[in-house]
Design a protein that fits this description.
The complex is a heterodimer of chains A (117) and B (192). Helices cover 56% and strands 12% of the residues of chain A. Chain A has helices at 4-24, 31-40, 52-60, 84-108, and strands at 64-70, 76-82. Chain A has a two-stranded antiparallel ribbon. Chain B is mainly alpha-helical and 192 residues long. The chains are: A mainly alpha (117), B mainly alpha (192).
């Protein structure tokens, strides 16, 4: 991994599906709308690739449900929303992420020592 | 923008994506790109660095959705690996032969052909054929001396260059036959 951008890209690659599932928790959204929601949460995908293949895999795996509906005066869009299976996957994925993050924090020496009251 | 979507469509067609699915993906992509443009954004805002590689993006998306059929060969059958290997071997043999001719030609720079009829007294007529297309001189029962070095040199150079081009093509990850070797489908990015 040669630079910070490459590392960031690799890290994001493993959790982008979780991030998409998370922003779908705010309500059904079409592709670009999800990009904007991610950006609003501080996660820019510029330079990182596209969300469409990830959405395609989520749909194929039954983690999201889709329907077509008109957007605000625009053409009909494909809206993605969490399926029950997707909700379970998100819950499990968040737990896995937190465990992995804690482990990495520990390895990097970022875990604060617990102070007993 | 339209060029990007058109390029995606071509890739989906090549990959055998059903038309309704391709139309749906193209419509969604177009709508998102137009919305980004209307907001003053760029294709990169929607697609990230995929905006610079539509074929790769299209293949990745279709593969992720599981809508690609067996890859449609975009090369004539001539380029299937067994035939390509046979062509490579033939080219190598020609080059080797020319090289040997060059080496042996240094000691003897001519080659003799017996042509036309050779009558050896009573008995059947013997005929040795010479390829006329090569333009070799036919001088009856005489011996014709031809300097083979320029011809061998030409064949050798063409052979070496041809082998180089063949190797570059064959081992190319994007154009040669090996691109279908691993998983039976063109290589696609791992972003899915």
């Amino acid at each position: 991994m040669g630079n910070a951008e490459g590392r960031r890209s690799q890290l994001l690659r493993g959790v982008l599906d979780l991030c998409l599932l998370a922003v779908m928790g705010d309500g059904p959204a079409y592709g670009y709308e999800m990009t904007k929601r991610l950006r609003a949460r501080g996660l820019s995908i510029v330079g990182e690739g596209s969300i469409y293949p990830v959405l395609g895999r989520l749909e194929r795996d039954g983690l999201v449900e889709t329907h077509r509906a008109a957007s605000n005066g625009g053409p009909p869009r494909k809206y993605y929303s969490l399926s029950p299976k997707g909700e379970r996957a998100l819950e499990a994925g968040v737990g896995e992420w937190q465990a992995a993050r804690d482990a990495v924090d520990g390895a990097l020496g970022l875990v604060k020592a617990e102070v007993m009251p | 923008m339209n060029e990007f979507v058109d390029e995606c469509r071509r890739e989906w067609r090549r990959l055998g994506v059903p038309d309704p699915v391709a139309n749906e993906m193209a419509a969604d992509l177009t709508a998102d790109l137009e919305e980004a443009e209307a907001e003053g954004g760029s294709p990169e805002d929607v697609l990230g660095n995929s905006a610079f590689d539509p074929r790769r993006f299209a293949a990745s998306w279709a593969a992720a959705r599981g809508v690609t059929s067996a890859p449609a060969p975009d090369r004539p059958s001539l380029w299937r690996p067994p035939i390509a290997i046979a062509l490579g071997v033939l080219l190598a043999l020609l080059t080797l032969g020319a090289g040997l001719a060059l080496v042996s030609g240094r000691s003897s720079s001519s080659i003799a052909f017996a042509t036309r009829r050779v009558v050896a007294g009573p008995g059947p007529i013997r005929r040795l054929l010479v390829p006329r297309a090569l333009g070799l001189p036919i001088v009856g029962t005489h011996v014709a001396g031809i300097n083979v070095i320029p011809l061998a040199l030409l064949v050798f150079i063409v052979g070496v260059v041809g082998l180089g081009l063949f190797a570059a093509w064959y081992w190319s990850p994007w154009f040669g036959p090996r691109r279908y070797r691993r998983h039976g489908q063109p290589r696609t990015p791992r972003w899915n």
